[in-house]
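User: Look at the shape:
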Amino acid sequence: NGVGSGALPTKVKAPLKAESMGDKFHLVVANLKQRGNAKPRSLKTLKSTIAALFPTGISEVEISGLVDKLQSSGKVAVSVNKVTYNL
C-alpha cells in the first residue's frame, strides 16, 4: 500500500502558534470547550493541560497568568484545587 513502516496514517496537527496572551487565552478556552466532560478537574491538571497545548513551550508565569485570566473572566472557578467550568 506504499506505507513503508507499516504504521497507520495519523492526522498531523501543526503546532499551535499563539503569540499574544489574548491568543493563548482564546486557544485555551476553545480547547476546554471541545473537551466536553473530559475537562481537567484539578488545578494541577489544568496547568499541565495548558502547557501541553503549546509544544514550543510556555512559561510557568504565562500558565499562571492564563489560569488567573480564566478565573477573572468567570470561565473557571478554583476551590481547594478543584476546578469547575462555566464556558
User: Anything to note?
Assistant: The helical segments are 21-34, 43-52, 60-72. The beta strands are 76-79, 82-85. The longest strand covers residues 76-79. Residues 59 and 82 are 22 Å apart (CA to CA).
